[in-house]
Amino acid sequence: DADVTQTPRNRITKTGKRIMLECSQTKGHDRMYWYRQDPGLGLRLIYYSFDVKDINKGEISDGYSVSRQAQAKFSLSLESAIPNQTALYFCATSDFTSNEQFFGPGTRLTVL
Amino acid sequence: ILNVEQSPQSLHVQEGDSTNFTCSFPSSNFYALHWYRWETAKSPEALFVMTLNGDEKKKGRISATLNTKEGYSYLYIKGSQPEDSATYLCAFIGGSGTYKYIFGTGTRLKVLA
To answer: Closest Cα to residue B32, out of B51, B18, B8?
Structure first.
């Protein structure tokens, strides 16, 4: 079984809809992250959480919110999706010593 | 704004050639530099975690060096094989006060058989 899972894997939605992307991990890591990947721009950090009570904005948090429901779960919400949020979204985890990121399989989101 | 730059953006080499790419990062407030390998349709996977100036890491035919004082890291691949074809990402970890984890845009390597 995969250590970091994401649901859904693909989603097509319309402008203005609320969308939630979910991430679960079995690695026992405290730290979890959400990234988006756009062609030519690489991976950009949206939000990160160092433990259940800790939420921090990353480089591009506008238009997004997150919830850390448990150590193993970290969800990303788009309250009102817009077309420029069309991207590939990755969840990742790390331990606190090395910060080496372990990535989920990605969610491809298309906003029409 | 912290910039992490990688060069070249893309590279085609023949099977058996050796190659190298560069990651440039801020030389201040350094904590660590990570290298990842990202194959098409998969997720990035860590290659190296580098923390000390002068670090050299090796995994098979792939190796990396780190110079934190001048803000660069090199990734080398010896005797490239088609299965080495991937995008290689570096990530800078550091920042003063607030946590920063910034990826470069990657070097896309294609090894031709």
So the answer is: B51
Q: Which residues of B touch A33 (CB under 8 A)?
A: 101
Q: Find chain A residues with C-beta within 8 A of B37's C-beta.
A: none
Which tokens is B80 given?
A: 């490239």
Beta strand residue intervals within chain B, DSSP E: 5-7, 10-14, 19-24, 30-38, 45-50, 56-59, 62-67, 72-77, 86-94, 100-103, 107-112
Contacts for B3 with CB less than 8 Å, ≥ 6 apart:
B24, B25, B26
Which of A42, A56, A98 shows the shortest C-beta gap to B103?
Answer: A42
| Interval A43-60: pLDDT, tens | 999 999 999 999 999 989
Which tens digit of pLDDT belongs to each residue from A63-91? 999 999 999 999 999 999 999 999 999 99
